[in-house]
């Protein structure tokens, strides 16, 4: 409408005071709405795509990092969002994809809806696969074992736990009757809130060394930079044996951990295990 066009021009004039005009895009309302949803859907799709290949890499003994590096050299693909992980989280990706699914369904585009829904399905699969791998690697049961979740925020440098993969990992493991410890430099209060009544079954410990004492396994769920700098020989010495580490963020030096004595289970590459 004429009134809408005038309003758009006024908003453009406001933003033009600090944003170069070449970077200001104008569109109709539907294009603007879909652009926001589709941007997050495409980013999440990249994560689910590389995570799906990480499962194949583990079966074939390929290395997901080598595959990601190779395809990332193709300028048509690029190297962003090609790192395998336990899954995506945060307040936007899942919400925006499901919004996109709903819109598609409302217009009878059921095949399109199922396509985008599969991005979330793959994310759920990756989280479930991570937990299943923990259980199967630890002799088929984790009941009564002390397991430390290293990180609960959905990403590093924030206390935000909304839709964090750690929530679902924690709940699945608690259903298996583990003795759980959660450590995170910023997100412990939010972790308690997210887990609700199940929080009574969890020990919350900010100090990762104290958390690891007597543990059977560590699961790295947030890519905190400080986790790279921990003394893992000290941690290994304080853990029960055999000691397991499941790196859900491809954060640590797996070869060094293996040489220390850990049984190391990364995503998208062969496990390094002392167990025969």
Q: Whole-number average pLDDT?
A: 97
What's the arrangement of strands in the largest beta sheet?
3-2-1-4-5-6
Number of domains: 2
* Element-level helix/strand string: HHHHHEHEHEHEHEHE
Q: How is the CATH topology of the largest domain named? A: Rossmann fold
Q: How far apart are the termini?
A: 72 Å
Determine the structural class based on helices, strands and strand pairing. Answer: alpha/beta
Categorize the overall geometry. Answer: elongated
CATH architectural category of the largest domain: 3-Layer(aba) Sandwich
Radius of gyration: 22 Å
| CATH C-level of the largest domain | Alpha Beta
Q: Enumerate the spans where pLDDT stays under 50 for 5 or more consecutive residues.
A: none
Total DSSP helices: 10
Classify the helix fraction into a percent range: 40-55%
Number of strands: 6
* CATH homologous superfamily heading of the largest domain: NAD(P)-binding Rossmann-like Domain
Strand content: 5-15%
The biggest beta sheet is recorded as: 6 strands, parallel
How would you describe this structure to a colleague?
- This protein has 276 residues and is α/β, with parallel strands linked by helices.
- It folds into 2 domains: 97 residues, NAD(P)-binding Rossmann-like Domain (Rossmann fold, 3-Layer(aba) Sandwich); 138 residues, NAD(P)-binding Rossmann-like Domain (Rossmann fold, 3-Layer(aba) Sandwich), CATH 3.40.50.
- The chain contains 10 helices and 6 strands, in the order αααααβαβαβαβαβαβ.
- The longest helix is centred in the N-terminal third of the chain and has 32 residues.
